[in-house]
Fold Bcr/CflA family efflux transporter.
Amino acid sequence: MSQLQLAILLGMTVALGPLALDAYLPAFPQIAADLNVDHTDIGLTLSVYVGALGLSQLVGGPLSDRYGRQIILLGGLFVFAVAAAMVAQASSLNEMLGWRLVQGMGGAFCAVSVPAIVRDQFHGKDAARLFGLIGLVMFIAPAAAPTLGVILLALADWPAIFLMLTGYAVFLAVVLKLRLFRHLPAKERVKTPVSTLVTNYSLVLRHWVTMRFVAIQALCFSAMLVFITHASFIYQEWFGLSNTLFSALFAANIVLMASLNIVNRYLLRHFEAVSILRVSVLLQFIALLVLVALAWVGAPWWVTAGCIVTAVGFMGSIIPNNMANALEFFPHLGGTAAAMLGATQFTLAGAISAFSTTVVKESLLNVVIVMAVCSMLAAILAFGAPRAVRREVAKNEAAANAAVLPRPAAPN
């Protein structure tokens, strides 16, 4: 299977997450009215989904190492499809929250399988390039998701969005079974006792270079999720924009992410992935500092939106480089390492997102301050990452060379 074909199939799989997060954003006002709750309460359905998406990866990752990627990925799609159909039938906020929790569990088994499959086949810059190519494919989903949601709302009520998710999950399961797993080279499974499915996490936790990258991605993703959670409020309530303009601005985020992703693939020919990562995280932080200043002075919507698009767009170069570095040191425990990355990313982001909706008073300034704080912490960690990676790689290479070089002959 060519790298492009693999990227398309894995990109379609990764797209499941953005569809579940973004497609129903334009429906927030309608869902709130139907369930007789506040607009802010509907944001909890995002936080619950993301939290389940994170924690459940801690189970799915080690299981995929032991039992194989196929059974975990297809099983996750089945759970996701059933839960999405049940969300469409929800008649109360609590019922919707419960099924979104189950949907997140199914989505987690899908999400953790993709980086593990990539690590099975590639490492280093090759892995970063493939992650970037996957990103280009899956960027279609978050770009189209709000527009798709608007179209479905024009044709039917909000449950149609979740029925669409059910249909996509079923379609994806068939395609992956017939195209991906039939042609993907088999990866040797980790035949270890079931008890080590938990203890293997200590290997990842003790690898401080990997954990640095895990923290960077979790914080950058948290900043983006805070925006996604409050995107409807910012554009539709704070600035009073229409559904169509809201969808267009949301798509602009993805266009810039895709553009920087393409630039990143070119830069990888000349620079190390970790160096590009450090610059990207710093530039995102600067963009968010400017955004805080704009919110403070009450800048018009088009200026604020431009700064939001810039800040979110840098995820196009942050994610592929960071994921490649985070998984670099665990070729035989790709599922476990990917689970730690995904679990930390989504759990922390879900907690911060929930904090921003339940504790922080919802206003434009408060939302962008939360985003900027997350980005600041990520920038602090990113500045130490290049030196840490070089030392670790050099140490690993020295150990490998010592193992293969012949011992010097004994003197006569």
